[in-house]
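dude i think i finally got it to work??
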Amino acid sequence: MGILADGDITIKNAIFNYGEPVLDIGNHTVTVIDGVLYSVSGTGTLILDSVSQGGGGGGCLSLPYSHPVASDSPSFSGNIVVQGYQPLFVTSRANDIANKASSISFVGGNSGLYLVTDNGSDMTFNKDFTINGGSINVIQAKGEDCITPAANTTVNLSGVVTVGASTNVSLDHANLKFGGVLNGKDNLQVQPGGSGSVTYPDGSSVNSEMRVVTISKLEDCSNVYNAQSANNKVLVDFDCSESILGTVDYPFQVKGILGGTGKIGGYSKILAGGVIAPGHSPGTLTVGNIEWVEGGIYEFEIGKDGGDQIIANGTVTLGNGTLKVLRFEDYVPKANDVYTIIANDGSDALTGTFKDLPEGATFTNSDGGVYKISYKGGDGNDVTITVVTAPKVPNTGFAMLKNNPLLTLLATTGSALAIAFVARKTTIKKQA
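look at this
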């Protein structure tokens, strides 16, 4: 059963959901505004404006990824025009309307093309399309387990792509390759904070740049989730403990850099390549439960005002993560200085160790500093490091001056000339 358009018409606020009649546009131009659209047939032109998808998803598969607009349209072969705030989703499903269209045009500066890969598989989209503003979004969908993908997928656009106005390109654990013809390359603006790269027809490529996000008020706490992407540095400087509530089954996963002096709650997991670096060199960050997997990093900094610290109001699982000790502004700690790098509250469990660092182990940094680690510090379940041998004093050049009178003379003379020049410059300004 279907609904057949017998001329050019506009349909508003209609629902063509799963199991409902197919919208047959024939060879006419049909504009659909608002509503829900699941199945379309015909050879004409379909204009989409603020139309929702049919069906639904679960777990971490949000609705558009699971059921794009008109995702059951095997008999459609017409043209698609996207306008307004309309997204058009492309997946590997053969009957998605985007895969059936003969041509696609984006005419609104707020519309967007979403290229979504599933199950860790690459995808090729061979349709020609024109986009005049808006966005191209390349996304690798997470599975039901909500685990951040370990490797990027690639979407290959093998048709003719024409970019007629400034268009943002966003990458979410996926790469974009223009394997066909690209017109208007200079109109593409690769957005920072993405995880992936864009490769152009000439073989050149560009990576998304690092994005730094600072959170200083409650309404921005959801931006903490930017740290789930590898190319993001998130500084939490507010109490977001009631906003970030990951669980052991669905944790808040860090693949970027997480820092700041605020608080997050729930269950956090530092994935391979992910970094937790408390404070602003140095400082204290408060978490709920925290877990490192192998390859996850704790960047601990020492400065003149103390060292970094993670306050854990829950369990701590070190999981063979990597500990890096850094010196802020070349500060030189003294032998026997003790730093509590993880303050574990109460009787909560602390399990595992950092990679290659069993209880009481010593390790040497490249600067010559020697440190000893303990997982029984504080009240018995804190992680501490003790300076065994102080690092070498950084070479500031004064030792060279002390041992070379000629250099001392030249340096003194140069300083005097510089002072004279500054004084003269000041005098000239006053006369003006």
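The chain has a mean pLDDT of 85.
im so relieved honestly
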